[in-house]
Amino acid sequence: MTLLSQEKLFLSLGGTMGEKYPLEAVEEKWQQLWKEHGVFRTKDPQETKKKPFYVLEMFPYPSGTLHMGHARNYTIGDVLARYRLASGYEVLHPMGWDACGLPAENAALKHKIHPKVWTYENARVMKEQCEAMGFSHDWSREVFSCDPSYYIHEQRIFLSFLKAGLAYRKESYVNWDPEDCCVLANEQVIDGRGWRSGALVEKKLLNQWFLSITRYNEELLKDLETLHQWPEAVKIMQENWIGRSEGCLLSFELSPQGEGFSLDLEEKTFLKVFTTRPETLYGATFCAIPWDHPFFKRALQQAPSPKREILEQFYQKQQQHSTASYVQDCEEKEGVFTGLFVLHPLTQQPLPLYGANYVRMDYGSGAVMGCPSHDERDGDFARHYNIPFCPILTEDGVFFDSPGENYSLQAKEESWPLLNGLVEKEGFSIMVEALEKKGLGQRQVMYRLKDWGIGRQRYWGVPIPIIYCGSCGTVPVADKDLPVTLPEDVTFDEPGNPLDRHPTWKHTTCPSCGGKAQRETDTFDTFMESSWYFGRFCDPHNTQEPFSQEKAEAWLPVDNYVGGIEHAVLHLLYARFFTKALRDCGYWNLSEPFKGLFTQGMVCHKTYKNDEGKWLYPEEVERCGQQYQEITSGKPVVQGRSEKMSKSKNNVVGVSSMVKTYGADAVRLFLMSDTPPQKDFEWSDEGIQGSWRYVRRLWTLFYHLKNLLGPLMEEKNSQEWLPSFCHKAFSTEIIKDLDKKSLEESLSLSGDGFQYYGFFHESLQHITQCLEDYALNKAVAHLRQWSNFLEEKVQNLEAFDQKKGSSSCDIEALLWGSKAFLCALSPFMPHIAQEIACAFGLQGWLHEVSWPCYHDAFLKKDSLHMGVQINGKFKGNIKISPSFTQEEILNLLQQDKKFSSYFPYKRCIFIPGRMINLVI
Ligand code: ANZ
Ligand code: ZN
């Protein structure tokens, strides 16, 4: 069957409206038509004159079915995309699958199904659900990150990073499950044990691939300032994650004399300590290092028994702990005296060197000086091990005036500065300068951010395109041999990495010498795929490159990026890093990927628990009086807190069942109602039922409207379905400069008509502003007010014997307001809006009808505040009437004390209703 041309299509769709809303037929029909006609297919930037606008929701992991969190995320994105479409932009609104990752392997293990089959089947189901929600995604750009046609480019990108020195291999610790003999992700370590074997997890040194994200520390931090359309909270989280500290790196000489043993040091050896508080140096009473510090190993090797056994015990215990950093932060302070001493740089007193679990090898220099009196952690530790305290500062941060009992301001050499009476801050620079002079310290900026370990010992990921050769070493796979694809014949019933134990896959020949060699069997961390996919969507079928630079630069940065706050740090930081690294490797001239970021809250729902502590499904529970009980047993049930929908708490509401019962429009409307989209959303039966009632109420309203206005609608020529302005005789150009009174006269509007337009234009103004500000719940509230207004007018009209009671002009206004309402409704409830619009004579796609613009002359406001700029700089506001001309405003300004000094000016730029700028 060939497709009908659009005119024929819309003629055939006719304009009938029954009394009852045929929900399923309507939603299915439009979804089918949108798909058949490819209406959401985006043109490439060079094929269109429209301005580009990129709306992107964080692409999902194809875990099974869409959950309400997805539905909310994509509804927000869809409303924004449809709004921009109507506003005349060429909108890129793509969707794809972040398809690599562990759950696919777990499913393979559990259900004996291949990860690939599982992944693609899930994606298929989820795509259908997206379509059933009426989302305007351009599916012709769909990508699967697990597809070789996608990851070939990722492998290329990795090799360019390698060439640019941004990728390297080094030894680092991983979580090692000694029973299953495999590496575990941090999430797979539960209370220090392997999630499957239950064995105590150890730390093991493995050679791993890293990306040098730390090379971009400064830039990642500095460019946060350019991200004006990001939530402040996210920027703060990134800042903390990067964690810039200014401090001092100072040296403590290692004493050759240990406790009961001596070290044979050939030359002076120093312990390097990073501190942000060098001014507290006089108060240092010990130093501490972690178990994996070289000095600890030294003590371990050289200390005599029984010290050696004690150190050995500490070493073993610490080694067994997971690498997850949070474990170290909340653990009880624990340590051991190494038997070694370091010399205090100022007093030359020997200070004991401890092994301590709260010091990390991977931060600063991997060693601290302990100031029990001025650092909480050092204080805790010192109390526990009876280390002396030495206060040197008052509570107000002033150095003590006179040496007290514990106050060891007695520097060995005269040349050390005394800090008596100074405040902390002054102490910092004085101390650093003194240390620098003596060559014992230097200013140092330190970052918390670590280089990104990208290797995973997993099957369902992108193979790292590297070959190891006995004679040539580490060799990149040749470009002509890319992609390195995964073998499909693998098994999951044994522990470990299936790639590693595959009989043939890893054996290959060296691209350089042709000899026998082995492939890297690690795959990329799945955050790699999501670090550049926004670029791929700009040019998803390109076989030569990840994307053409021209296309990517035309679309990027993403204008509205919508997703969960849980990605505030890792994903968003990695994507920002990739963007800069790709820039430096010549892929594009882009420094930031996401111009606007919006993070939505979670969808929550009530939970129920019986007296055995088992979570129950809402269907298993009934209400009796004020109490709840389990239907089958009659046992009492406690209604718990509302929590994030989750399978483990049995409080999930399925998207499909809701769409089936209430329709996509009702689900979309409910998800956008009442709660600001950045806040957590409470799902409720009452809520969705309320939205469904509203859908039907809308239908009834327009059914009546159509009966009332039908004759008038037929008179109107259908050339312009929603005239840009109400009255044929006046173009927008002419009315632009009219004030309220002359507008009223020239349009010969009755008072009512003017009031109608006033309401419509004001509603439009609010809704437009809400859409710009992501205040989607407020936009919904305005839509509801609007339909209430229409309802009231319809009832009045019906009460008056049809047209007689009101002027035809009111009716004209009413018709305009009804159509404009449908346009504004369309991003939220696209199906019913399109259906009604056709019944009201629209012969085309509602989402393509231009977003109705509002006109200031109709806005009820009698006065408004206009911004005043001088040479483009904002200087203040003045209160004016909306009808004021440029002359009148200039007169006002000249009389105003604040602005009179800028007269005479050279030039004046005037944007009615918004601002006036004087160039002086
Ligand atoms: C002495 C001192 C005295 C410190 C005082 C603090 C307060 P930020 O701000 O996060 O950079 N530190 C340094 N390296 C460490 C490591 N590898 N593991 C654990 N702690 C380490 O923190 C810097 C401070 O954290 C440093 O300043 C050091 O303790 C500690 F009254 O040095 B401070
Ligand atoms: Zn070789």
Could you provide a short overview of the structure?
This protein has 920 residues and is of the alpha+beta class. Helices cover 36% and strands 18% of the residues.
Describe the structure.
The chain is an alpha+beta fold. Helices cover about 35% and strands about 20% of the residues. It has 28 helices and 33 strands. Strands 8, 9, 10, 11, 12, 13 and 14 form a 7-stranded mixed β-sheet that branches. Strands 24, 25, 26, 27, 28 and 29 form a 6-stranded mixed β-sheet that branches. It is globular, with a radius of gyration of 35 Å. Residues about 325-330, about 405-410 and about 730 have low confidence and may be disordered. It binds ligand ANZ and zinc ion.
Number of strands: 33
Shape: globular
What is the radius of gyration computed over CA atoms, rounded to a whole number of angstroms?
A: 35 Å
N- and C-termini, Cα separation: 68 Å
Largest sheet, in brief, is: 7 strands, mixed
Bound molecules: ligand ANZ, zinc ion
Mean of residue pLDDT?
88
Q: Please bin the fraction of helical residues.
A: 25-40%
What is the topology?
Blueprint lengths: L5 H8 L9 H14 L14 E7 L10 H19 L2 E4 L9 H10 L3 H18 L15 H16 L3 E11 L4 E3 L4 E2 L2 E2 L7 E10 L5 H6 L9 H11 L1 E11 L15 E6 L10 E4 L4 H9 L4 H14 L4 H6 L4 E9 L6 E7 L11 E3 L5 H9 L39 H14 L3 E7 L4 E2 L1 E2 L9 E4 L3 E4 L21 H4 L5 E3 L6 E4 L3 E2 L8 H4 L12 H7 L4 E5 L5 H15 L12 E4 L2 E8 L4 E2 L4 E4 L2 E4 L5 E9 L10 H8 L1 H9 L8 E2 L2 H31 L16 H4 L4 H7 L4 H22 L3 H24 L8 H18 L4 H10 L24 E7 L2 E8 L5 H10 L1 H4 L6 E5 L3 E5 L1
Parallel strand pairs: 1-2, 1-22, 10-12, 22-23, 24-29, 30-33
Antiparallel strand pairs: 3-4, 3-7, 5-6, 7-15, 8-9, 8-11, 8-14, 10-13, 11-12, 16-21, 17-18, 17-20, 19-20, 24-25, 24-28, 26-27, 27-28, 30-31, 32-33
Helix pairs in contact: 2-26, 4-5, 9-10, 18-19, 19-20, 20-24, 20-25, 23-24, 23-25, 24-25, 25-26
The site of ligand ANZ has 18 residues, from strand 9 and strand 13.
